[in-house]
Design goal:
The protein is built from four helices and no strands. 78% of the residues lie in helices and 0% in strands. It is mostly helical. Helix 3 runs antiparallel to helix 4.
């Protein structure tokens, strides 16, 4: 299970790399592929790790509510991205693509916060000292 999780993590980083390196105005197909790859792989990772935390496989089995909020925020952000992209594509309303871009960034920051939170849980109770 951890090997599959690591593979999804590598694909997630690859998707984020493509999303960052290729603007939607330059090579749209690579940008869209990067966004899809990043979203799908990070969604699988977030749900898998949240599920493992809830079942007590990782850590003490005690989970706080914050860990459960990340997948929900992620899903709602994706739905918002999808709706704003469709509205922009069909009706070309000004400002809607800006909402899409902002939600895209919220998704990326939510991902960063989730993994930072997981690292905090992994290192809880340890002290790091430099001598």
């Amino acid at each position: 299970s951890s090997g599959i999780n690591a593979e999804y993590g590598i694909l997630e980083i690859l998707g984020l790399f493509l999303l960052t390196m290729f603007a939607s105005t330059e090579i749209f197909s690579l940008h869209a592929f990067g966004f899809s790859l990043f979203f799908l792989c990070s969604m699988v990772n977030i749900f898998a790790v949240s599920r493992l935390m809830c079942s007590g496989v990782t850590g003490s089995g005690k989970i706080n509510r914050q860990t459960l909020y990340y997948p929900l925020i992620y899903v709602f952000t994706f739905v918002g991205c999808f709706i704003s992209y469709i509205v922009h594509d069909w009706y070309c309303i000004s400002g809607v693509y800006t909402i899409f871009g902002a939600l895209e960034l919220v998704m990326i920051f939510c991902n960063i916060l989730f993994w930072s939170h997981c690292d905090g849980l992994d290192w809880r109770g340890y002290t790091i000292s430099i001598e």
